[in-house]
Amino acid sequence: MLRALPSGRCGGRASFKASAGRAVVLLKCEGDLPARAADVAFRIAVGGGPASPPRGPRVHDFARCAVGGLPADQAEWQLGAAVDASSQTLAVRVEAAPRAPGAPAAWGGGPEGEARYQ
To answer: Quick one: where's region Disordered (predicted)?
Structure first.
């Protein structure tokens, strides 16, 4: 999911126009997961090419909360800067892998806690 960030002018509500393209990328699990598969390590990249390295990894328990995202210090993206001018498209890349409880994230990071968004 892409969620526009509030600009402070809309009483807490946000639109992509009002946010000037500032947004967060959230992952949502829409099914029931067994506990052994609920911990997922993921990275997110917005835009294409080497100028858009992935952020993360982040480990989230989707059995506990269906929506997860990057930590606050990595979560905000400037979507306008990531749009491909020639095709007017936005690439969002998510790399995800199940993680056994207590195991390090698939990309070499350790357990890094949870990010929760309401």
So the answer is: 99-118
DSSP sequence for 86-108: TTTB--EEEEEEE--TTSPPTTS
Per DSSP, the three-state class of 27 is: strand
Q: Longest C-alpha distance within the chain, in Å?
A: 44
Q: Is the pLDDT of residue 87 over 70?
A: yes
Q: Report helix, strand or coil for 77.
A: strand
């790399």: which residue's tokens?
Answer: 95
Model confidence pLDDT, tens digit, residues 36-75: 888 999 999 999 877 789 999 999 999 999 999 999 999 9
Helix, strand or coil, per DSSP, at residue 24: strand
Query: CB-side exposure of 3: number of CA atoms within 13 Å?
Result: 18
b/e per residue 21-49 (b: at least 16 CB within 10 A): bbbbbbbebeeeeeeeebbbbbbbbbbee
